[in-house]
Amino acid sequence: MKIITIVGTRPQFLKLAPLSKTFDENNIDNIIIHTGQHYDKEMSENLFNTLEIKKPNYLIEKIGSTNVQSLGNMMNKIEEICVKENPDKLIVFGDCDSTIAGAIVAKKLKIFLIHIEAGMRSYNKDMPEEINRLITDHISDLLLCSTQDSVDKLRQENITNNVYYVGNLQLELLENVCNSYNKKDILIENNLSENSFALMTIHREYNTNINMLSKIFLELEKLEINIVFPIHPRTKNTLKNSNIKIPSNLKLIKPVDYLNMTILERNCNFIITDSGGVQPEAWCLGKKCIILRSETEWIEPLNNNNNILYDYKTPLNLFINEFLKVKIQKVNIDYNASFNIIKYIK
To answer: Is 207 helix (H, G, I), strand (E, B) or coil?
Structure first.
């Protein structure tokens, strides 16, 4: 059996890591296409080397000045590769442009389409990711869900055939890394100790404009804890072009690689984020997580009081302090996603 796997963004590389190893262990021929959607030579090579992921068989050059042009280029190149390789099945992950590009090509070429992390919904169609999820789920042949909640959401849309809960590949990777990597250089370099700091990651446009950043920073200053903020390029540009006051308890550091990010997550007191990937990781680690969004795809961490959506009305510092008092309910997490996926793919 020959499978083509489509990846193009950092979260997809993280999901590919444990699955790629399981493919090798089961002698499954897996052709990896890197769409170049988020491509930085140093970042990509570092991530594939660090996580010991098989190198992509194909790297597509990103072409186009708009999302539509870039998407069209991806589809053209993916089609060429699929015609050449003639795979039995094609896998896409999640909800980015690489996902929808691979999905459409698979259906046009009548290739069996597998969607991993199917059924996630924010119900906010202003998000491009929501459109990508909806289309991909409705044309996939096999839908493998990371959460039980996702299975229920698909059922509500009358998608019930070949839908299975398999668990979260990214949490399987996190569990593996927690068991194998514990170098704390990133803590030493930044004079940090366990539970003495909060970790913040924000990058979405509605949180990184001048007005919102000013408001967030003003309220964070009132928290009686130091906050470590690996700064995203978009946020860095906003700060560079404004006179926003950086609170004395906010420590800006350069973006960190995946392994060091897990060290920060594992050793922080709590997390503030608008990232989709960080939310389930916080849940897995039992770290309270304040989500700077009005909606989320990750419902289960909300249900056990591990994560919470910020209401954008209450001052952030007061909101956080109240949430930290709420007791987390224990949950059992399945760390065998790659094994479960292989079972359904074969």
So the answer is: helix
